[in-house]
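Can't paste images in this forum, so I'm doing it all in text. The chain is below; anyone willing to post the predicted structure tokens underneath?
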Amino acid sequence: MPKITVDGKLIECKDRQVVLQACLDAGHPLPYYCYHPGLSIPASCRICLVEVEGIPKLVPSCQTVVRDGMVVHSRSPKAVANQKLVMEYLLINHPLDCPICDQAGECTLQDYSYQYGRSQSRFEEDKAKKPKKDVGDKILLYSDRCIMCTRCVRFTREISGTGELYVDGRGYREEIDIFPGKPCNNKLAGNVVDLCPVGALLDKDFLFKQRVWLLTRTESISPVDSGGENIYLEHNEGIVYRIKPRENPQVNQWWISDDTRYSYKVLTEAKRLKKAMVLRSGGAAEAEADAAVAAAVARLRALAAESPGCLYAVLSPMMACEEAFLLASAIRAIDSQAVLVLGPVPTSGKDEVFKNPITGQQTFVIKAEKVPNAAGVRRVLALLGGRAATWDDLAAAARPEVKNLKGGWIVGGYHSNWISGEIPAIIKSGFKVVQDLLPTPLGAAADVLLPAAAWAEKDGCWENYAGQIQPFEAAVPPPEGVMRDGQIYLSLLDRRGQYNAQLVRREMGEPFASVQATSRLVQSPATEFVPL
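Text version of the structure:
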């Protein structure tokens, strides 16, 4: 592997790596704006120019490939003078609106102005005024803040392949714009906001909501499809304000879909269930969560005593693997012959594949399977063995074992109404405990209704379609009156103490035991699920 010397520091590089990326990987920061490892390299911002011994002029570090023995100077008088000149040029027409800019606190223009800028501007003429405009349903463009790094343009051409954005005009009249009648509304559009190094492209949904330095980041996983996109939940005082992509070369690279980006809205959905309900002679009545769970367990035990093998548990593909394991174990502790059922796995058409139209290379995939953990629940069912079925089996009631069911525990947790058509007769006629996030016809017909915690409010792990098991952590507490699912299932098993996802994974054995909350990814082979 080649080695280069940067400002007196020896750095080991990858073959054919550019100087800038080698420095960043080694923890030796260099200023840059237009460069991004997932996009083409125009070398247009010029702030990353460095001196290389043997070359008579400054060269762009983002475009210069390393060679063994190369000596680079990024802090020499010539390099520093260039950085100051570039910053002065970028700030000539830039408005001084940091106090009201959403990017303040995470803006590299702001940061570099302190490091390389001047305390006073030498520009005495009027600044160029450019319009503020909508470029998409969710995206706002403040043109006068734009530094023309063209990251957003390259993204729509090279990653989403939709090409809505382009550069209009030349010189100081340059602006980013959309082609007439083609707003930037593709399913990856929100990534252009993440790519913008200044406050030019803004998310309307986050606009003026929070100062970024007040937000806390928690690592998590996308809940809206089986791709397993890695994300950050950014929150403050118990409220999630936005979702940002988390780099993972094996899963989602640097990008996320807009479905993932706005999936946090279910956390504050006005219709969200927050109170436990128990069906009594006078109708459904509110109850404390502990009392509702106790009533559900008492009835399930009575049914199992009367007719062994009559209980079931519907394990939702929205559940964490640990929760599915605990609930299945709890139902089997009440009725050793209980049937474990994989809940509905909704799909939407086919996988949406994005490609670079120039190279034909695949850049991103949005999976058709719209739940995060169907593969994980299948693995849990295979791990526990015994009688298993699918939701379709319950609906058809074709199997003898399914026909005899009289009561069970049903978990939903989907982000929309997941009951399509009529409630299966075998469920409708029996005793049912429903644990869900939002109101559904099934919840309205439940004997005991328990509000569920959302994925951002609990710890666990999910397995994506490729067999990759990834952990996620609780970012915010559940609403008042809502118990975390794992804690409920521990109480069903008569276990004391707080729910701990890592301890449950150890109990489950491999490959779950190897999943650490701080790990990026655990690769494991997929498990085939064979129903009854």
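The mean pLDDT is 92. DSSP finds 15 helices and 26 strands in the chain.
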